[in-house]
Amino acid sequence: MNINEIVLFQGFDSSVIKEIEEICLEKKYTKNTLLFKKDAKADCLYILEAGTINLVIKNRGTLVYSLSKPGDVFGWSSLVDPGTYTADGICFTDVKALKIEREKLFQVFERHPGAGLKVLGRLGSIFAHRLSNAYRDLLSARGQDTTPSYG
């Protein structure tokens, strides 16, 4: 997977892309592997290459958000304070993903602050999309109008 094709990093200078590529680790995980646990220190960002990841939140019930599109980003909590994962990340199938350590990515952003700012903006967009989908699903489960609210 080319880093510059991933929404999070699209349009970056080739020098920044090269630095990000150098810190990416391509990893393979087997079905049912727990990549991270809710409330654990978020030290890595992941980009899905193949397979399906379930992000699972349990609190008197269970909410599962599945990611299966190549380029999907998860572990985004590693890039924001307080730096703890907000869900369990579990491989629903065998998975291939890029793994990027938080500290190494932050070092790139220290050298290229504009790139870091773009990533935060795009991360906000990803989060807003997921939140909107969660609202829609919740309202649908309650049998209510599923028109999303953005306020």
Brief summary of the model shown:
The chain is an alpha+beta fold.
Helices and strands in order, then pairings?
Layout (H helix, E strand, L loop, with lengths): L13 H10 E6 L4 E3 L7 E7 L2 E6 L3 E6 L5 E2 L13 E4 L3 E7 H10 L1 H29 L10
Antiparallel strand pairs: 1-8, 2-7, 3-6, 3-8, 4-5, 4-7
Task: Explain what the structure shows.
β4 (53-58) and β5 form a beta hairpin. It is built from 3 helices and 8 strands; from the N terminus they run αββββββββαα. By secondary structure, the protein is α+β, with helices and mostly antiparallel strands. The strands form 2 sheets. It has a 4-stranded antiparallel sheet with strand order 1-8-3-6. It has a 4-stranded antiparallel sheet with strand order 2-7-4-5, with no helix packed on it. The protein has a single domain (3-101, 111-141), classed as Jelly Rolls (Sandwich), CATH 2.60.120. It has helices spanning 14-23, 102-111, 113-141, and strands spanning 24-29, 34-36, 44-50, 53-58, 62-67, 73-74, 88-91, 95-101.
